[in-house]
Amino acid sequence: MTYWIRAYNHRQYRVADFIRDHGFIDWGMTHHYEVGDVVFLYLTAPDSRLTFMMEVEQVDMDWQETEKDSEYYLSQAYYDAWVERREESRYVRFLFLKELHSPALGLEQLREHGLSGAPRSPRRLRPETAAYVLEHLEE
Question: Is the pLDDT score of 64 beyond 90?
């Protein structure tokens, strides 16, 4: 199992609402996730913190297997770009495990525990960062 961090921008798509409504989220698969991997979703600035703990449930899906979600897009341009490239892309399903509220899971604290900078694209977490996050799930 691998621990990942994946950033999202809440100004383009209502990620949190979709997860709360469905208990999972489908995402473009740009990295080699494996079923059972854990992904921490990171809300970008100004919040700059971890918000959800998810588990990879399914990989290598095509767009027709993904949940219909057009009403969650906040940006028409972002939606149009997805429609334009959706047939060439593969998708991953992240299953909801836990919503995170701890003030210890902000960018500054994560950087103090091995995160090299604000996440922009998916990346594996260093063992020290993953251990720190796991210690602060209940706060």
Answer: yes
